[in-house]
Amino acid sequence: MHIIVLAKQVPDIEKVKFLRETNRVDRKSADSEINPFDLNALEAAQQMKEQLGATVTVISMGPQSAEAVLREGIARDADRGILLYDDSFAGADTLATSYTLAAAIRKVGDFDLILCGETTVDGDTGQVGPGLAERLGVSLLPFVSELTKVSTDKVTAVTETSAGSLSVEASFPLLITGTKELNTPRLPTLKEKLRARKAEVEKWTAADLGDVDPVKLGIAGSATWVESIALPPEKKRKGEVLQGEDAASQLVAALDKAGLLKG
User: Fold this and answer.
1) 81-100 burial string, b = 16+ CB within 10 Å, else e?
2) What is the CATH number of domain 2-216?
3) Residues 6 or more apart from 46 whose CB is under 8 A from it?
4) What's the Cα-to-Cα distance from 212 to each of 135, 149, 182, 198, 206, rounded to whole Å?
5) How far apart are CA 41 and CA 21, in angstroms?
6) Closest CA to 117 of 158, 188, 52, 175
7) How many CA atoms lie within 13 A of 220 on its CB side?
8) Is 100 helix (H, G, I), strand (E, B) or coil?
9) How far apart, in whole angstroms, are the C-alpha atoms of residue 168 and residue 186?
10) Rounded CA separation 58/54 (Å)
């Protein structure tokens, strides 16, 4: 059984800044980390490996610093880490990203299951997983919150829909996007981290992907782009000190004026 996990390096979304000249995220402006939803995907793969003896490959597309994401995956029991790194990949939207990832997965070869987070905290579109499933011609189970039964040829999973939860059985090959409710990711041990630090991370460029169309990569292959960035003004807290013998009545009057005493 071969499982592929997709993991992305994302900036600390609370601290990141934007480049207004190019309307892009300045990824150097904040510390980077693995996308939190992808940790759930890695945990699911680790559990399957323990139960079924699966082989796990982690793939990430990004700058050289994204190698840390792959080492994180290896520390969580992945067998192989592949970084897709090339200047031509930069600026890709979800369309170009799914194209590049599909090419890489075809190069990797046969797989049974692809796992990824339902979305990434920097883009928050949730489009890469479905787009990748379409390109690879495999079934898709999105927004999976529970894997109730797993075997070497199929899974039974709970997916979340607008109408409620739905239990679905699906055969491999299959792509699953997981929610944060899927599991509780474990922390790697010090021994696992040291092993991952010494592990080899493969680095593939566009040339390594074989017969890919350069106009479908990166910015050139993106059907969407950011026209402008507008940050909402930061709201500052307002405070007022109530003093004197009538402070309590002033407070009641202020709360009533704000409509907080109604009902």
Assistant:
1) bbbbbbebbebbbbbbbbbb
2) 3.40.50.620
3) 56, 76, 77, 186
4) 13, 37, 34, 32, 7
5) 35
6) 175
7) 10
8) helix
9) 26
10) 13
Q: What is the pTM of this model?
A: 0.83
Closest CA to 38 of 76, 2, 64, 5: 5
- What angle do helix axes 190-198 and 67-75 make, rounded to 10 degrees? 130
193 three-state secondary structure: helix
Alpha-carbon span 21 to 24, nearest angstrom: 8
Dump the DSSP string for 108-155.
H---SEEEEES--TTT----HHHHHHHHHT-EEEEEEEEEEEE-SSEE
Local structure of 161: helix, strand or coil: strand
CA distance 234 to 106: 46
> Which one-letter DSSP state was computed for residue 217?
S
Other residues' Cβ atoms within 10 Å of the Cβ of residue 250? 13
Q: What is the pLDDT along the chain (263 residues), one digit of tens a residue?
A: 999 999 999 987 666 666 666 656 665 655 789 999 999 999 999 999 999 999 999 999 999 999 999 999 999 999 999 999 999 999 899 999 999 999 999 999 999 999 999 999 888 899 999 999 999 999 999 999 999 999 999 999 999 999 999 999 999 999 999 999 999 999 999 999 999 999 999 999 999 999 999 999 999 999 997 777 776 777 777 788 888 888 898 898 888 888 888 76
> Which stretches of the chain are assigned E, i.e. beta strand?
2-6, 9-11, 17-19, 24-26, 32-34, 55-61, 80-84, 113-117, 139-150, 154-161, 164-171, 174-178, 201-204
Q: Which of 98, 99, 111 is nearest to 4 (CA)?
A: 111
